[in-house]
Every structure is written in C-alpha cells, then in structure tokens.
Amino acid sequence: MQPVPFPGGERHTEQRRIARHQLAEYLSVYNAYTGRPMGQIGNISDNGMMLISLLPVMVGEVFDMQLRLPSATASEEVLNFKALSHWSRPDISPGHFDTGFSIVANGEAFSHLARLLERYFSFSHSLDA
Fold it and tell me: Rounded to two decimals, what is the model's pTM?
C-alpha cells in the first residue's frame, strides 16, 4: 500500500482493495431517518464509497443512509443501507469534506448498484438497441 498525500493533511496510506470508479455526475445521499441530504457520492466500489459533504463526518461511526434513484416504474427507487466511516479530510474544493465509507448492511444491493453505475458512466459498454 502506497502513502497518498492530500492537501492540508498527513500522508494517508491507501487501504482500498477494490478499485473505485469516479462518477461523472453526483448522486445525493440522504440520512435514512431524517431524510436530510448528507452529501454526494464522489466515487464508488462494490463495497464502499466516498461521500463529498459540506460538513466533516465522524470517523468510526455507522450511519443509516439512503439513495433515491430514478425509476421507470415509480417516481424514485429508494436504497437504504448502513455504512461505516473510516476517514474524513478536507476536499480540494474549499468548504467541502471527503469521507470514506464501507457498506456494512444491504451490501448486496449496494454492490449491484455500483456495478450498474460503473457500466452507465463508462464508455466501454455496448449500446442497447
């Protein structure tokens, strides 16, 4: 594992085992209990994500989160999951913070979503007729 420097912080050791994919557009993440926005997904893997938020996030805590996805059959499809925060640091954009999470509940559905998003945002998939 290589140290990864980031602005305004000490050297960080990369611990990710699965590649994460940068998203071309952001998906909002909500608090599953209050419905309030927590931030946007900056990147995603089968078992984790990086959240970009306006406030720093407590590290070592489990959060109940929700994604609201567009659906062809309903106004939106809701995916609830629990995620454990591992690290948090200032984002390169002033006034924003990046936090790394691993998914600890409903991981199968989250993993499926991550694979769909990877396919949707990549140019390597074949076009559907």
Answer: 0.71
